[in-house]
Design a protein that fits this description.
The chain has about 700 residues and is an alpha+beta fold. It contains 9 helices and 38 strands.
Length: about 700
Amino acid sequence: MRRSQIFPSNHCLLLLLLAQLSCAQYEHWPYLPGYPEPAPQVFQPPQRAPNVPKIQLRLAGQKRKHNEGRVEVFYSGEWGTVCDDDFSIHAAHVACRELGYVEAVSWLPGSKYGKGEGKIWLDNVHCTGRESSLAACGSNGWGVSDCKHSEDVGVVCSEKRIPGFKFDNSLINQIENMNIQVEDIRIRAILATYRKRVPVTEGYVEVKDEGSWKQICDKHWTMKNSRVVCGMFGFPSERKYNANLTSNISSPLCSSILPVGMELDSFPSQFITRQPLVRLKGGANTGEGRVEVLKNGEWGTVCDDNWNLVSASVVCRELGMGPIHLNEIDCTGFEKSVTDCKFNTESQGCNHEEDAAVRCNVPAMGFQNQLRLSGGRNPYEGRVEVLAERNGTLRWGTVCSHNWGTVEAMVVCRQLGLGFASHAFQETWYWHGDVSADDVVMSGVKCSGTEMSLSHCRHDGAHVSCPRGGGRFGAGVSCSETAPDLVLNAELVEQTAYLEDRPMFLLQCALEENCLASSAHNTSLASGYRRLLRFSSQIHNNGQSDFRPKNGRHAWVWHDCHRHYHSMEVFTHYDLLNLNGTKVAEGHKASFCLEDTECEADVQKQYECANFGEQGITVGCWDVYRHDIDCQWIDITDVPPGDYLFQVVINPNYEVAESDYSNNVMKCRSRYDGQRIWMYNCHIGGSFSEETEQKFDHFRGLTNNNVSAR
């Protein structure tokens, strides 16, 4: 067997259990009645010396987790980088603490996270490690550097955040408000009947000037101007406005000239249910993500060569892992679809690390005002509280945690613009929420994961039912800017599938772990056998953070027969379905262990199962379950000959949050004649168009990929 682990000695096990009891099990036990609970920690930002300029830091770059990246500094109204000359772990500690992390783990020279752009603000940085800001460390001076962006420094911060740390974005907001942003423009409805509609789709264009809203004169205003404003608010195009509606309205700016009026065209395409030609995948929020294009019935990506804001604007207006379909895009900005732009049909020199992505403006629907997180240590976590109408008044209340899970948490994080869910909580007594909002106002919540608001999910409505009540048992979430994304290699499954008739006396451990059909219990141990459909699984993490099991090591289950730990009892489902979708055979695969079997050239392995090691799959790495290990099969002993659908589902119970669950399913067509099996048309869920996927469910011609029983 490929995977093995050494069982710890009794002394090690005793120490391990003691550590778990002292650190893990008692960490969140409630205080006894009558004992006051300690007040939540309040973060006190360090005092900044008068001669130290105020700066803002961020972590940037590709192939990174949320707590690592290229160090970028916002100074004098502009983002820039830091050179790696003389940089040290002390400087890394200062940078990580300034970002809200407890400490730095390491720092990386030589533009490990890619080359930055703009100025190199700091060079020859010297820190003692006790400074309150990177700006307080010694350096050559602001913008004084002989470095190139190939020397941009990066840091890896600890996962643990400073309790009570609050993000201070006042510097960025102050500077960016000097330019006209989406927040500085509004469309004010003219007719009273339109003023309560969300979103506003027609009316006056107004601009904020020195804190007050002012109208724009319509002299020289054109439809192109309207198109720009519509695009800023996330609408695909503009409509001609009826100027007669404003004939009696004067403007404070233009006296006798009418203020500009406009009408936006319908809803943006991301809210339309028709099959589009372009879609966004893997984004944390609505209107952002990897750009994918439908071509010949199959979804593929766009290479980022020559990708710019003009091309991105075309995609955003149009919107309403497979092959790379488009390369070297060249758009004018007036195309109705990105497929109308000029492009190179060849994808040579482009790989999926260069997939283009966009972040579009979307209409302000006000969803984020209907929800809040309360009591958390930082803005990304807390008890979920919703604004609901009760007895004719709006009031805040909690959400019943019964059956609350990761999918529901994903909707909450998206609605609040906080990225992806990292955890869903059914108990929140350790978070001090608003006492006035303890009552449950929403129950029976069940989401599909695509909703823009928690109120769009199925729920009990006004008939709230929650036996445990709210308050300390209200639903909670923690959100993250990044998430993992597991994808199975469909081609390898098709290439490695085969049948094996395996003697029953070699399958005792598999029987113990429920890896065989129920009829196996009646099979003779001495002379019986089981027919197994075997295959290899290669599971890639294409996301932006590591895939880690839900449970810590203290909760892993030791299986003595196979001599290994299970970090997730159900990691994958293997199913054989008839063409009506009914299961005729199934298997399940607990994670023997999750580890980095192989990684891309520039990625370091982090997880290894041997010796009770940490488990997970690093970004840019993959875990391989070979066809010849136990339980890597479906027991088809009782399956009659016929045509079937073979299906693999990764992380089927959504125990671990991912950026995209649609690609966790892999399907193949198969034909079994009693001795041989054909596997063909294996593909990842969501990689085909709806029409092609429907055709897949009906019989089509066979390929020559057939294998016989051994």
